[in-house]
Design goal:
Length: 156
Amino acid sequence: MPRIRPATPEDLSALGTALAPLPLFRAYQLTASALTQRFESALQRGEGLLLAELEGAPVGVCWFIARGAFGTGAYLRTLAVKEGLQGQGVGAELLRGYERGSGDPPGGWFLLASDFNAGAHRFYERYGYREAGRLPDFAAQGVTERIYWKPRPAAG
């Protein structure tokens, strides 16, 4: 099983290099350097940035904002697992880290998933997220982002 821990500035270059080859980041033309810069900025702003590592090497990231959706919901900015390690529990551990790390957001948990990422749609739906809307051309021209939401469990 992967070790999930808060990312440190020393982790970010290796993390960006490990994840840049993913089709998700290539679709948005994000290089290792660009990813590293984004992760550095997230840490500087105090946003949640979790690292998954196996045998001391970074293999995944979870970047989130505890109250980034409509002021009451947590927002998962990025969840990514290194090529070849999907389906082995790394993403599930990172997703649990997001949900735990964002506390108990009154508005629930939100994320966006690109329309071309069918694997991500199945993954999030498996963990109780449901599609709540779509944003055409939001992050990139020609790509529709699907809005996913997992409401807080009902009280009682």
